[in-house]
Each structure stands twice: as structure tokens, then as C-alpha cells.
Task: structure prediction
Amino acid sequence: MSAVCMTIALSYTLAQTTQSKRGDSLEAVWRAYNLEVPNRMDTTAVRLLNEIADEYASNEPAKSQEYAFKAKSFAEQTGDTRGLAAALRTIGVTYSRQGVYDKAVEHHLAALKIYEENHDKQNTAKVLNDLGITYYRQDNKKNAIEPFSKATGLYEELKDERGLSGMYNNLAGIYLDEENFPLALVYYLKASNLQEKLNDSSGLAYSLTNIGTVYHNQKQYDSALFYFTKALPIVENVVQDIQLLGDIYTNLSNVYLKQKKYPESLRYANKGLIIAHEIGSRTLREDSYRNLSDIYADIGNPKLALEFFHLYNDLKDSIYTDKIARVTLEMSAKYDAEKRKQEIATLQKEREREAKEQEQTRRNFIVGLVLIGIILMLVANGYRIKRNSEAALQKTNAQLEDASTKIRRQNHHLEELNNEKNEFMGIVAHDLKNPILSIKLLSQLLHDHSTISDEERMRFSSTIISSSDQMSRIINNLLDVNAIEQGGMKMDITPFDISVAAYTVFEEYEAIAEAKAVKLHFASNTDAECIADQTATMQILDNLVSNALKYSPSGKNVWINVMGDKTWSTAMIESGAHGVIPRTSVTTPLCVRFEIQDEGPGLSEDDKKKLFGKFMRLSAQPTNGEGSTGLGLSIVKKMVTTMNGQVWCESNAGNGATFVVELPQAVYEPTEEEMGIAFMAKS
Result:
């Protein structure tokens, strides 16, 4: 299926030529105003600069920023808070369009604070929408839900139906991405009702297309066809959005294919492919190739089916090839840099040692001459000099020993880097080779044997999809480890409800556990908030729950337990190959704790020594033959440590395992007003 048609409520509706003319006019007004009194700073100047910046924000973000930063400077110097907020908002929008998401979020939050302090609900809702859009573009969809929801509440208070329709679409898009189809459908239907009322043809076309997508994903093909067909004439005759038109053609082709209506499916697949080439859309081209391959396979034209499959597969394979090449290059460069650094350090140490030896020889020679000249007169003094020389020699030897120890440590570090590189190449050669071979063989079977039953075809297709998912997980784990070690993973440390986060993971894995005949339990006795990165914490929970299910036999249990208002563990926490975490790393007096407990095979003593290390394979084997790169627990360890927390495992071989994570708990101090109320009540 084509990607979700995300409605961005910020988008501009004027054509670029009209926008350019209006921008030119506003710039002319600004030049005339500035000509009267050069560099005049007042609210009128701030307003003009903000209007120009806003006008260029859609298509010329760099030019927009130039005017917005000038408006910000003028507003700060004149005390114009509303003008400052408008400038900050435009800067945030342009950074978001340029993909500089950290700076975009920073300016969104600064503008939001000003609008909230001034009780400006309309602009507060707009900035919340901007913030949600930035999170969405950053692929941080769970963080985007909160600002979108808050903006929805404000638009409802203001009875702003146009703003509401945009928010409904944005929320629906996120829920569709997360495959929460019932919620996605609710919000898309709300949006479409408002858009019909407002005569918003463009918004209605997107909503109808996305409703069709929801039904298609639920395999309700008649309903999907109804909404795609309803959207088509609006796009062809009114909106004239060629990208959306291509998406609808591809979706119609896919639905007709599922209904085995091959002429209709072929017609729309070819239309979609024509548009894909016209606009240079890679995604649309992939969807069209896949549909055409499936159509020709079904109607008994294996030659054309294979040709289009190769076109589709080449586009897909290039993505994996690019990622693997990039990671391999980064690892090799890292190893070469460390090796060169070690060689330089060793050479420098050798030169220093030779210089010290030469200096020592020279000193000894001078001391010898002095001793020969005055040996009879200064026997006692000579003895003292001898002792000092011996001490100096011992000190020099100690320094040489220290240098030798450092060299041995650095050599050991280089060996570890080389082993990591070899492990990585082993994963590329083995763990990626097997699923690729499986996909190739099964695809060849599907291609060469036209008498394969529907049941076998479904089984082979499921195996191909599973193998593709396995390759994706392996590559994502490798990229995560590399991002953490290179400092590329930025943590957004904020308070959030840990129980809600844990329950979300529980819901995602309930069906997986049920399919494996494992009972998944959830319990929480707290509503405490932890101070951490919510996305990273969700990934930690996801990894630990996935591992617990992976190593649990059928008929067993897995528990997710959440506790708050806990004091930190007082003992030093063992962390396998990475030593211990000192208690002094904790920054708050309380912590929240979540435990993932299973009834699997547990950990041997050798397993405990290797736990949390990179590329470590433990003795226990997944019960359904699932794959493992040995990176998951390493990622968990690095993320927890980065968020100032601690993680360990309690296990005995044969008696299951319990992974425990402790993260700082948000501790709120009472305000002066609350303290005053408490004092009055006590009096």
C-alpha cells in the first residue's frame, strides 16, 4: 500500500507564483517603511518582518529565516512579546522543513511558552500542531500524539472546525501508521464530515483516500473500493494533486487485484506507473511494480511477472545495500583510525623512552666524572648521590612499565575492535545471507511452479515476509548500536507516566504471546512519572518483553511489573562484562522500577559474564527458532546507562530470568502557594 496521506494543517494554499508576488509586494512595503527612518525598531517593523517571513516559509525556508531572525531581534529589543512569539514559530517551521528537528523543537517550545502565558488559545493550538508535525517528520510518532491531542482540545473550545479537521486527520494518520485501525477510522470519519461541511475539497480527498487505506489494511475490500472511488473524481476534477492521484490509482489497482478483477487492476497499475515516472516518485514506482508483478503472476504470464518483480526487488535491495555499505564503511574507518592512533602513540612513547635513556646516560657520565674527582673528600656525599641516582632509575623504570601497560591495554582495545568488526562481518555474511537465500528460493518456487496450491503460496509468502522482517531487525539493531556509540542518538529527557508506557508495550505483545500459547501478565501499583527519554524507554521495554517471549516455551507465563516510589538498590549492581554501576550515578532520591520476568531456561554462570555485551550469543535458544544478533541487551544497557539508570538480571539456570530496570523518578517540590495553603490549614 502507498504511504499514509498525512494532512499538515500548516500547509499553505496559495500557488507559488501568487505567493512570490505577495512576497515581493511585502518586501517593497518593508523597503519603503525602512527608507523613512533606517533601522527603525517598533511593533510595525516587527509585524512587517514576520509577514514576509511567514510568506516565504513554505517554499523558501532559508529566505524566511533571514526575515524571521531579524523580526526576533527587533521584538526582543522593543519588548514585543507577541511579535517575538510569531518570529519563533516561523523559525521553528523553517527548521522543521529543512530537517533540523532539534532546533525546530527548541523554537516551537519557546513560542508555545509565550502564547500560553498570554492565554492566546488560537496561536497556542497552531504551535502545538507545528510541534506535532516536527515529531512526525522526525519519525517520533508517539511523541506527536500529545501536542496534536492538546491542539484538538483547544480547537474544540474555540469551535474552530477547520482547525479541528486538520487535527483529526493528523491523529488518524499516526494511528494508521501504528496499525490502530479502529481509532484511525474514527478520526478520519470525523475529519471527512467537517471537510464536507466546510467544502474543503483537498482535505476531503485526502481523508477519503486514507479511509480507503484503513479498510484495505483490514481486508474489507468492498469498503476500501467505495472510498477510493469516491475520492478519485475529486482529485481528477477539483484538487488536481498528481501525487495523490498516483496513490489512488495504485490503491485501486491493489484492491481490484485482491478481488481478482485483473483488467481493472492492470489499468490502474499502469496509470499509477505513468504518474510515478512523471513526478519521479520512488515509493509510487515500487508499489506499481509490485502490483504489476502480482497481476501477471495471477493471470499466467510468468515472464512479465518476473520482469516486474526484478524491478521491484532491485529498488528494495538498494535500500538494504546502502545501509549495510554505510555501516561497514563506518566500522572499517573506526578501526583504521584507532589503529593509526595506536601506531602514533607507540612511536611517540618509543622516542620518549630513547630520549630518557640518552639523558640518563649523560647524567650518569657526569656523575661519574664528579665522583672520580672528589671521591676521597666526599664519600658520604657520594653515597647520597648514589641513592638519588638509584631512586631516579627506579622512577624511570616505573614510568616505562606504566607506558608498557598502557600499550598493552591499547592493543587489547584494538583486538576488541577487530573482533567486533569480524562479528559484524559474520552477521552480514551469515544472518543476512540465510533470509536472503530463503527469499530467493521461495520466490523461485513461486515463479517456476504454476501448480502450487493457494495454501502453499500463502505459506511461502508468509516465510518471505518473515525473512524480510528478520533482515530489517538485524540492520536496525546494528544502526542503533552504531548511533549510540557515535553519540548520534539524542535523548529527550522528560517526565512521563511509566505505567502507561509499559501497558502500551503489553498491549502490543498480547497477541504475539497468545499465538505462542504464552500467558502475558501486567501489573502496576503506581502512577509515578520517571525522568527519561520515552521513546528509548519504550524500546527497552519492547526488547526485554520480546526476549522473554522468545525464550519462553508454550504454556508458560511472562510478567510485566511496574513499581514506583522505590529507593534505589543500595548494593553495587553487577553488569557482566561492563563492570559495576556506582550508586553515585543516581541524581534523584527515588526511582521507578519495571521488571520483566519469564519462566524460560534462565542464565548459566557463563551467560551472566557475557550479559549485555555486544554480539554475545547465550546458551539458551529461542523456542520457535527465532533469530538473534546478540545486540538487543547491549542496546538496552547503553540506553539505560545514558538515561542515568541501572539494569541487571536475576536468574538461576533452569528457573527463568528477571530483568530489572531502575530509572530516576520525577520528584515534584510544592509551590510557595501550596505551602502557604498547607500552613493556613495547619493554623
The beta strands are 493-497, 519-524, 529-533, 557-567, 573-574, 580-581, 590-598, 646-651, 657-664. The first helix runs from residue 16 to 36. Residues 493-664 form a domain with the Heat Shock Protein 90 fold (CATH 3.30.565.10).
